[in-house]
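User: Hey, quick favor. My workstation is busy. Could you predict this chain's structure for me?
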Amino acid sequence: MKVSIASDHGGYELKEFIKNKLSHQYEFIDKGCFSKDSVDYPIYASLAAEDLSNGIVDNAIVICTNGVGVSMVANKVKGVRCALCLNIEMASHAKLHNDANCLALGQVNQSMDEALNIVKTFLGTNFSNEERHLRRVNQIKKMEEK
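Assistant: No problem, here it is.
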C-alpha cells in the first residue's frame, strides 16, 4: 500500500516516527517538510492530498501540531475525505463508516505510540460497504460536483 505523508514543523517528529516504525509494511511517499524549521502547513498537506486525489497513493497522512489545520486543507482537495482522529476508535469508524482516505494527526494530541496505533488502525481497516454508509459517502462525493 502506498501512503503519502506530510507534516509541518509541528508534526515533523511524529511523521518521522511513523515512517521509521512502518516503512517495512507500507511504501511512504514523503511530501515534507524535512526539518523542524518553521513552514506553512497548507503547502505540505495539499501535496499529500493531491497525491491521493490523483490516484498516486491509496491513503494519505497529514500531521501538524494539533491536526486541525492540515485536516482543513486536505478536505479542500477533490476526492479527499480526511478525518482528524484522536484515538483508535475514531480511526476505525472513519474508515468503516466514512470511507476516509486521509488521516490527520496532531503531534501534541497523544503519545507517539498512541499515534502509531491510530495509524495502524486507520491503514488496516477497510470501508464496510454497508448500504447506509455507502449512501452517505456518495452524498459527500456529490457535494464535490457543485
